[in-house]
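We recall that each integer encodes one residue's backbone shape. We quote one record:
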Amino acid sequence: MIDRPIGDIMKAKTGPSIVTIPPTATVFEAVALMDEKRTGSVLVREAGKPVAGIFTERDLMRRVVRLGRDPKSTPIKDVMTPDVRSVPMTESTLEVLRLMVEYGYRHMLVMETETQPWGVVSIRDLMAWLIVPEQIAHEGRRGVVYTRAADTVQTLRGG
């Protein structure tokens, strides 16, 4: 299961996979969009151009709130993470998870082609997909989730 392509997870996501905002937008506009779309990140990108960066909840805390910047006047291009790590949608889920853990990423850009983004996968998406089966009766959830979590940990440890 963990060796399946990350594209399988992307296809199963229920929420929006790509949420973009132009580099000239303000932090306030980005946060409003993130809240509306119920996502922890937005890709910074002009229409028809390559991805310029990513803005995440972590960027908001570290580069805006902590530094006392005004969200209504700060352009997103000034506080985004410019170097967005990406993987092809054919990459294994295990490799994507390894990269996220090793480098401390919470979001990873998944590419359909070298120039075409497919979506963003979050660490939460991966954990939910690995641990919680699609359909579990409420009364069986705790035991099944515990077993799946233990199996996932064992797999990640190489056991």
Summary: The two ends are 15 Å apart (CA to CA).
